[in-house]
Structures are given as C-alpha cells and as structure tokens.
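Hi C.,

You asked whether I'd gotten around to modeling the 325-residue construct. I have! Everything is below, sequence then structure, no commentary in between.
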Amino acid sequence: MAETELCFPQLNTSCVKPKRPLSDTVLIYMILSFISLLTAALNLLVIISISHFKQLHTPTNSLILSLAVSDLFVGFILLFQSMLIDGCWYIGDLMCVLYYGLDYIIISSSVGTMVLISIDRYVAICDPLHYSIRVTQKRVQVCVCLCWIWFLFCFIVFLKDNLKQPGQYNSCVGECVIMVTLSEQVVGFFFYFILPITVIVVLYMRVFVVAVSQARAMRPHIVTVTVQGSRKVTAKKSELKAARTLGVVVVVFIICFCPYYCVSLAYQETLFNASSAAFVICLYYFNSCLNPLIYAFFYPWFRKCTKVIVTLQILTSGSSDTNIL
C-alpha cells in the first residue's frame, strides 16, 4: 500500500493530501497563476488610466474604477486559491477566515458596483436633462464608499463566530473551513444575487427600450440639425455607446456568476463532480479578467491610455492633461 502524504508530517492530526497526478497539479498552478497575473495587470491599467488622466474623472468612470479595484483584488485572491490545489492550507486559521472574508467583500462589492452602474446608465438615458444634477462625482464616490463599508460590516456580522475562534470547524490541521448556516446562505443568495440581478435586468431592459425609441425618434432629424444640435446628437450617441458597453459588462457578469451561485446554494456531489465544480469556480473568477478586455474592445480611450502607460509617456510632466477622448 502506498504511503499517504500529510500536509504536516510531524502532526498526527494533519490532513491528508489528495492524490493527484503531478502533471495536473502543475497545469492548474500555471493556469491560475496566468489568470491571476493577467487579471491584476489589466485592472491595474484601468485603475491608473482613470486615476491619472483628468478627462476620465467622471461619475461613470468612478464606478468603473471601483469595479476595477475589486477585480484587481480578485487577481490576488486567485493566488490564495492556488494554495488549496494540493488540499492543504499552510498559513494559519486566522488567514483562512480573512481569505474567505476578503473574497466575500470583493465579490459582493462587485455586485453592488454593477447595481450602481445600472442606475447610472438608467438616469443617463431615461432622464438625461437631470443627469448632471442627480449624478455628481461626489455622490458617486460616497455611494461607492458606502457600498464597500456595508459589505465589510456584513462580513463581520456573518463570520463573527469564525473570527472569535478561527479553525474551530476544521476536522484536521491544514484544513480551511468556515461555517455558514443554511439560513445565512439563503439570505445571502437573495440579497447578494437575486435582488441585485433583478434590479440590474429591470433597469437595463428599461434603458434598452428608451434607447431604441430615442434612436428611432432622432433618425428623421439628423439630416436637418444645426451645429449645436449635432453636438447634442453626438453626446447622446456617446451615452448610448457607454450604456451598450456597460451592458455587455453586466451580461458577462451574469453569465459568469449565475452558475457559481446556483451550484453553491444547491450543491450535491451526485450532480457535480470535481471537474465541473472547478470549471464553475474558474468561470466565477475569470469574469474579473474579462472586464478590462471589454473596455479595450469598446473604449478607444482605454487603448490610448494603455499605449501612454506602456510607453512610459505617463511619466512626463503634464501627462495627466493629455487629450484622451
């Protein structure tokens, strides 16, 4: 009989490492490391672009910045996720709770930011005359801060028992387990997935209907507009393009998150094997890598900012005033 390998060989209470071919382990490490580095690098470009260039200091971009920050942290979370590949947790019980807590705060903040983005696009398209009054830079920043603070508070409330005595639910040394009751899972599923997704879908359906009706109404008048009128049309097209781009972000977000939440709420080993569970988790985290790629595809300003950053032109004096749009 082959000798079993323990996470901590010097301890009799140590967890046993699951047996997996070395080639599979190396492949998983490489994939997770690649996704982690790519996610961190791309979202760092978004953060630097919006923070540095003054033309990008708008309420909508502040929401994109908040989303990029949460996606950047997802890249670091993937590094911790890679530690669990061999079935062992080596950095202590407190770090285990903090890892799950950080994961919860980041993902929940992403969901909250998606809701704020939907509200922003709803007001911009459906009530454009009052948009600049209702949606200001300061109000958006306050909403983003409250969003992050709220989910930090929820983390402390939901995991208070795990924080009091980290590792109390571990069955062996080297395991990373936290306890969340079924009622807490159901409440979290409703408030952090069903309700936000419902709000997002309803608002974007409304935005889509209004955008289509406005496009049809503007079409007969485009030929006869004045110079001032043409500027309004251009501004309206810009808002519609932003709504379309962020709509793609929202759709990709829903596609990536739905399988994970469905599996996590109704997990049964008879229905989901290790391979399908791993795919769902990878899809869940890979969403953070896709968002910057969507910006690069739809936003010319992001491609221009990336070129300025990569060529180090950003280090020159006055680069923050560069014409990006």
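If it helps when you're writing up: The chain has one domain: 22-219+227-321.

Thanks,
B.
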